[in-house]
Design goal:
Layout (H helix, E strand, L loop, with lengths): L7 H11 L3 E10 L6 E10 L2 E7 H4 L6 E12 L1 E6 L8 H13 L2 E6 L4 H12 L6 E4 L12 H14 L4 E3 L5 H14 L3 E3 L6 H7 L4 E3 L4 H4 L28 H11 L2 E3 L2 H8 L4 H5 L9 H17 L2 H20 L19 H13 L3 H8 L1 H6 L16 E4 L13 E6 L2 E4 H15 L1
Helix pairs in contact: 1-4, 3-17, 5-6, 9-13, 10-13, 14-15
Length: 448
């Protein structure tokens, strides 16, 4: 599959967002996500929405004709991407949409890949690109192809062509497609040059998905089924929630083989591990409901999340849940070790994942699974640029777009430090801690 065509918007957006502004962030330690990994005591100069220079603060001098920002000896790294995001429909109202967008940006997310789009999101994408609306860069699918929206192979192909013509960035796949429907969607997506991403339908299976070079598999969907041996009685059975129902049949010795196959086919994964940990894990539900970020969600949504979590935890045994989570952790490390692409995404706002805040919990989940902090950060920075075919995105270096996150302490030493934010820059526009706190206070007040 080719890289996403939306990327042309990113450069067009720079001039309008930055308004030809010059800024310099002094007294920062830069995590470049390029070599070398850390540069101490730096000044970073930004002009017209792009990074133009990194230099030692001691040598930068006082003379500068733009805005100067004191980095407070913090750590500057590329802004993050949420590669499995959900954006409210515009029919939900401007306030609901803007709340989610600001929750993302307030947490350092400068790009969101919307995984269930609608026609209004095409307009929203343009508003975000021009700076008319505050929030991350938006990459959006159209309405999903699934077992209910697609009735035939011909209809699957037509939906792909129609969505490409409408201007969506990619095709979202939900479960329920037949092999013939999926194959026709693949054929048409290749013909009109639009990627496909999302779930693995049961009839399609992991082997065909990988062979078709689907751009991303999300939630590690299909891998549990792919790890059931051919002679196991659970082979071909309903997997339940991402494989929980068939966890007893998983053959852990097959994980490396599937990881190598994934890497060979060039298929990327967006694990959304927090979604699984919240629902299948052992963290007490009340503890999660008491997380500070829950104040930014309405009571009805939080109550619904709690009910879904209770249902899933009672629907599967402790042994099933723990075995599924153990498989996923081993698979994540194997995918990393074998060179298969991993991208950061948390499926917010879904089941106890508050937009923006959940991406920091996702980073912590990646490190808990066995990735290093550097590898976890790469999933939301440098890897995203590689996925989109951009060698300047997700790094702090001259020529790169000025998408930046400034935090108090070094996340390479403790990944949880990404959540302690001093400021965020999206393509040259700086939002300091005071402004971010103002957004959050307004959102909390609207929910109280």
């Amino acid at each position: 599959m080719s890289s996403f065509r939306y990327l042309g918007l990113m450069l067009v957006a720079v001039s309008s967002l930055a308004a030809a502004q010059s800024l310099r962030i002094d007294n920062v330690n830069v995590i470049t996500m390029d070599a070398p990994a850390l540069l101490e005591n730096q000044s970073v100069t930004i002009r017209d929405g792009k990074i133009v220079q990194l230099s030692d603060t001691a040598d930068a001098g006082e003379a500068f004709d733009g805005q100067r920002i004191d980095g407070q000896d913090g750590y500057l790294l590329p802004g993050l991407a949420e590669m499995h995001a959900h954006i409210p429909r515009l029919s939900a109202g401007n306030e609901a949409v803007d709340e989610v967008l600001r929750l993302y940006l307030a947490n350092g997310i400068v790009l969101a890949r919307g995984m269930l789009g609608e026609p209004g999101h095409l307009q929203l994408r343009s508003q975000l690109a021009s700076g008319e609306r505050i929030g991350p860069e938006l990459v959006t699918s159209g309405p999903s192809l699934n077992g209910q929206s697609v009735g035939s192979p011909e209809q699957a192909g037509k939906m792909v062509r129609d969505q490409q013509a409408a201007g969506y960035d990619f095709i979202k796949l939900h479960p329920g497609l037949t092999r013939r429907q999926y194959q026709q969607a693949v054929k048409q997506s290749e013909r009109v040059n639009i990627p496909m991403a999302g779930h693995v339908s049961a009839e399609v299976g992991l082997d065909l998905t990988l062979a078709s070079k689907q751009a991303t598999i999300d939630h590690l969907d299909g891998y549990a089924r792919g790890l059931i041996p051919e002679d196991n009685e659970l082979r071909g059975q309903d997997p339940g929630f991402f494989g929980a129902a068939i966890a007893a049949g998983i053959d852990f010795s097959r994980i490396d083989q599937l990881a190598r196959q994934t890497a060979k086919q060039g298929v990327w994964n967006v694990p959304t591990e927090t979604l699984m940990l919240h629902t299948m894990g052992d963290t007490p539900l009340q503890l999660m409901l008491d997380w500070p970020e829950m104040r930014y969600m309405d009571t009805a949504t939080v109550d619904r999340w709690a009910e879904i979590t209770r249902s899933l935890r009672t629907g599967y045994s402790e042994q099933q849940r723990r075995r599924l989570l153990a498989m996923r952790q081993q698979l994540l490390v194997s995918l990393q070790n074998h060179g298969a692409g991993l991208l950061l995404g948390s499926d917010a706002p879904q089941i106890l994942n508050v937009p923006g805040f959940s991406i920091h919990r996702e980073l912590q989940a990646m490190v808990s699974a066995g990735l290093t902090p550097q590898q976890a950060l790469a999933m939301g920075t440098r890897n995203v640029g590689q996925f989109f075919g951009r060698d300047d995105w997700g790094m702090v270096k001259p020529g790169a777009p000025a998408n930046l996150l400034l935090v108090v302490d070094n996340p390479l030493e403790d990944i949880s430090h990404t959540a302690d934010i001093l400021g965020v820059m999206r393509q040259g526009r700086w939002h300091d801690r005071s402004e971010l706190d103002g957004w959050l206070a307004d959102i909390a007040a609207a929910k109280s």
